[in-house]
Amino acid sequence: MSATASLRHEFSKGFLKENPVFALLLGLCPALAVTTSAINGLGMGLATMAVLLGSNLVISIIKNFIPDKVRIPCYIVIIATFVTIIDLSMGAYLPDLHEALGIFIPLIVVNCVVLGRAEAFASRNSTFSSLVDAISMGLGFSFALTVLGAIREVLGFGTLFDLQIIPEAFPGISVFILPPGAFLALGFLVAGARVLTARLERAAKSRQGFMTAAEAAAAAAAANKETRGAEA
Amino acid sequence: MNYFVIFLGAMLVNNIVLVQFLGICPFLGVSSRISTAIGMGLAVMFVMTIATIAAYLIQVFLLVPLSLEFLQTVAFILVIASLVQLVDIVMKKVSPPLHRALGVFLPLITTNCAILGVALLIMNREYNLAESIVFAIASALGFALALFIFAGLRERLELYDVPKAMQGAPIALVTAGLLALAFMGFAGLA
């Protein structure tokens, strides 16, 4: 695989195929807890992405200095530092969102997505690809939380990003705002993501087959022209 | 009476897994067998109680006097991580049978957000030490209860013909949703 293609792969993997929530089922606690509205989901996703960027950056820089035996505590301290920075900044600049997300901001420390990427990716890859990985995973996580939050908000309140979508005459299905709705919505989303991934893979495979057939035809035509030119 | 309200509230009404969404990873991860669910539940109860006491003492005698409250997250996670290691070592030495039963779950507990979550919740609610201990034990019991019921449900679920797309995690999540719906029946109890 060429450098740009692998970079594109690193970047796009986080959305569906290796989406931390839909495919890997990581970081489910915040995904279920804060997604009562799309904006909360987005805020939580972006906060996690900021921590992920910081921790992946630092860990990939100092990976050669961390002794192998104590690497996990080292990662946790680095992550906790960035979480504290994000926690305090959000408290200062976005007090409403900070209030809504509650203890799930400090709990980013134990979010398996962040520690998982540190251990599985940043500790053995270059700084640049670790940053790309953090952006990809962070965007994938934000995407998942926003979708889940949007679905729960539309079904529960009839609004999307605080805009009225469903007329107020129709009462919302309040169970989707309550805890059970989070489990139900996520369960069906994971199932849907699986079906979609399987379909996309099948489509990609058949397209690949088609491409080679088209290429073969083009090559044959070119060869035909060449022989004719030679005759003339 | 106050302790009883805290106990019921933490165990049933605001169940840590099904209402507060803490500790979902072990809830989904180690709930396929009732026996492992019991082991995990006991290990969490053990660590959660000790970790809560440790976090409380750190907060009251170290962070507040030195006005270092902003280091709460870093301090708590370090205390919990080292405590889990300590419990592991002590248990191996003092009670090998208990270590055999719970040992495999201990490393998993470090990243169990329920432990850190309970420590942070207690600080937010400004409980005293006795209330904190009651809250921690009740939360852990609630975790064990939810895990136990869920494992029982999943053992039965294996016998049923689930559509292909829903197999595994999706049907487990939907089942958890129905269980959460059942737990909502406790609302207003305490």
Structure description:
The complex is a heterodimer of chains A (232) and B (190). Chain A has helices at 3-12, 28-33, 38-62, 71-93, 95-101, 112-122, 127-157, 179-231, and strands spanning 159-160, 163-164. In chain A, helix 1 packs parallel to helix 7 (127-157), helix 4 crosses helix 5 (95-101) and helix 6 (112-122) runs antiparallel to helix 7 (127-157). Chain A has a two-stranded antiparallel ribbon with strand order 1-2. Chain A has one domain. Chain A is an all-alpha fold. The model of chain A has no long low-confidence stretch (mean pLDDT 83). With 190 residues, chain B is mostly helical. Chain B has one domain (30-183). Helix content of chain B is 74%, strand content 0%. Chain B has helices spanning 2-13, 24-29, 34-63, 72-94, 96-102, 106-110, 113-125, 129-157, 169-183. In chain B, helix 1 runs parallel beside helix 8, helix 3 (34-63) packs across helix 4 (72-94) and helix 3 (34-63) packs across helix 7 (113-125). At the A-B interface, helix 2, helix 4 and helix 8 of A face helix 2, helix 4, helix 7 and helix 9 of B.
Q: What is the gist of this entry?
A:
The complex is a heterodimer of chains A (232) and B (190). Chain A is an all-alpha fold.
Q: Please report the number of helical segments of chain B.
A: 9
Instruction: Quickly count the domains of chain B.
Output: 1
Helix content of chain A: over 70%
Radius of gyration of chain A: 23 Å
Share of residues in helices of chain B: over 70%
List the helices and strands and how they pair.
The complex is a heterodimer of chains A (232) and B (190).
Chain A: H1 3-12, H2 28-33, H3 38-62, H4 71-93, H5 95-101, H6 112-122, H7 127-157, E1 159-160, E2 163-164, H8 179-231
Antiparallel strand pairs in A: 1-2
Chain B: H1 2-13, H2 24-29, H3 34-63, H4 72-94, H5 96-102, H6 106-110, H7 113-125, H8 129-157, H9 169-183
